[in-house]
Amino acid sequence: MNKPLLSVEQLTVGYPNQGDTVNILQNVTFSIAKGEIVGIVGESGCGKSLTSLSIMGLLGDPLKVQSGKIEFDGTELTRLGKKELNKIRGNEISMIFQEPMTSLNPVFRVGDQISEAMVNHMGLSKKEAKERSIHLLKLVGIPSPEQRVNEYPHQLSGGMRQRVMIAMALACDPLLLIADEPTTALDVTIQAQILDLLLDIQRKNKMSLIFITHDLGVLSKMADRVMVMYGGRVIESAPMKELYENPKHPYTQGLWKAIPGSAKGEKRLYNIPGTVPDPKDKIKGCRFATRCQFAESRCRESEPPLLKTGDNREIACFLYDN
Ligand SMILES: Nc1ncnc2c1ncn2[C@@H]1O[C@H](COP(=O)(O)OP(=O)(O)OP(=O)(O)O)[C@@H](O)[C@H]1O
Ligand code: SF4
Ligand SMILES: [Mg+2]
Predict the structure, then answer these.
(1) What's the pLDDT at 153?
(2) 73 and 124: one domain?
(3) CA–CA separation, 220 and 266 (whole Å)
(4) Is 276 in the pocket of ligand 1 (CB under 6 A)?
(5) Does the predicted model carry a pTM greater than 0.85?
(6) Do you find a cis peptide bond into 62, omega within 30 degrees of 0?
(7) Residue 211: CB within 6 Å of ligand 2?
(8) Range of the domain at 262
């Protein structure tokens, strides 16, 4: 098999607390091949955004990578200094953030914001960067791009701002794009248009895409592979089709009941009784045990490791450890 473009190994992220460390991500392990689309799903607070921010080197204080590796195209990212990381971020790896307004600066024209990375990373002149910004705005479906390029974020609708974010993220033709709930704030028709656009560009550029969403219906249509996170860990990962047809981890089974067209057919995440664990609680066994209908005594004694159960499939659950 070809070497993956990105491989995250045993990534643990946490912060110091009263002489101890609270780990929010624990031994997160996954990889993505060139041109592959990997979806990340899981309830709110399970660590999806922190996984992306770790890859981008954007963990805010007091969070730190405690252990593990993030290897991108042959470079180990967790050891890079700010300057070296800046060369990769926004250039070879870019991200569409969950909150568009946190990454658009209200006091700069959208054209200048899209141009910045191209001037810094691609060595374009301001004039060339502006021309490419207009081209990118057109590409993401913004009408009258020659005029819009000179406008400020507040002059655009929510849907257009999201498109500007995509244009920014695509400015330097990244090898890897991380899209963190890129359409949650938008209405359904615009959501569909933006997803089509992302997929179109992904195919044309053979870009790798990490797609984070709560909407399993969307994911089932686009992802090659899915990893399911729970309480800061990867608990199951498999090709989309296999996971869709045969979810194995009890938590994944719960989530899957919600996919439109499945037995229960609800649109959003099925509400699994109980709540997600607090990262501050030291849990001895399986993090899902308090909510799992199959929990047995060994589930409360030690944590099930993420084990390979097939060619491209991994599960962290004692029901499958044989
Ligand atoms: N700076 C921080 N300091 C301490 N804890 C944090 C910090 N940022 C996030 N967390 C905690 O880390 C956990 C994971 O957060 P994260 O934002 O990755 O969740 P998520 O899966 O993206 O959720 P959502 O679906 O709501 O976006 C949460 O419990 C959150 O409260
Ligand atoms: S390890 Fe045990 S508690 Fe955890 S998901 Fe599997 S059966 Fe349920
Ligand atoms: Mg998030």
Answers:
(1) 93
(2) no
(3) 14
(4) no
(5) yes
(6) yes
(7) no
(8) 6-92+172-320
